[in-house]
Automatic annotation (TrEMBL):
The gene is dctP. Residues 1-27 form the signal peptide. NCBIfam families: TRAP_S1 (NF037995). This is TRAP transporter substrate-binding protein DctP. The lineage of its organism: Bacteria, Pseudomonadati, Pseudomonadota, Gammaproteobacteria, Oceanospirillales. InterPro entries: DctP_fam, SBP_TakP-like, TRAP_DctP_sf. Keywords: Signal. Pfam families: DctP (PF03480).
Amino acid sequence: MKKTAKFAITSLAAGVALAAISSTAHAQQEWTMTTTWPDNLDLIKIDQHWVELVNQLAGDELQINFRAGGTLMPGTEVFDATETGAIQASGDWPGYWAGRSPAFSPLATTTSLFNGVDYLNWIQQWGGWDLYQEVYGNYNMVYLPYGITNNESGFMGNTPIESIADLEGKRLRLSGRDQGRVLEELGGSQVTLAGGEVYQAIERGVIDAGEFSTPGVDYNAGFSEVADYWSTPGWHQSASVFGVMINKDAWDELSEETQETLKIAADATMAWSLAWSERQSTEATVKFQEDGVEISTLSAEDLATIQDATNEVILRGACEDPMHAKVYHSMISYMEHYANWRDITVPFNMSRSIDNLPSLEEIEACM
């Protein structure tokens, strides 16, 4: 009896120890994540959608404590906080970091180039995903693109912009390094303002017109209350990408299965975000018109001039920075390659047909 009891106790102790080791190996991790968006801007819904999916799918391994932009730190500080590991993750728009590397600009948006489906294609099948890892990897981060919106609204304000001639001498709120350069080529002047300041800048006449995001986001931000005119299309941001910066050390602590779960959640959120924003944009356009906002559309000739200016800016930037050149080289290579199928499917193709692209040879000369 004594030997049996001793064996039972020993076995029980070993079982408890094994359970403890197993529990430790699979202990749930907790992350703190914030974003560049305050909770009064609809773009935060893209971040929230991804976090909710991750918490559902990886709940036994990882839980993310999400905080709205500005509640932990100013939005301008989230890059450094994620890079250093002060927080594990943050949602962003890559263009905000173009001052660190100009390569961030095309990872965020393009002027008169990609639409939303182009970004989806490029990220998923034409090498874009690897370039996000390369650029963010220089700052001790992994990057998961998880949001795509189609072209932005365009310029809204109390000064009509019916042609590019009307841009001459105008002060316009515009985000993005390359976007600002194109605007300057067209005679306008870029004014940099945080998204939450655009409403008041239009209302007070600090700027002649401004842009922020898609019609859905802009309408919910109150732009129809302060703008009488709306100039389309949003050539300055023909599509936009959003995603999550993840500290590399925190990422490496996850199991491969959990890492894959986060990627799956990002892919699902990317598809959702494009459809969500297009539905929002459609409903908001109707509301802008009902509120009396006057909409004008630039001519084909004006858009061709904008494309020429865009090509010049891309080539100039390529020769200033090799990584900037590498990203655009990949994008334009995609456009040329996809054209083999895209252009014989007009008008049912999913992408933009374009016969005036920057020269790959000239970009290669700068790489």
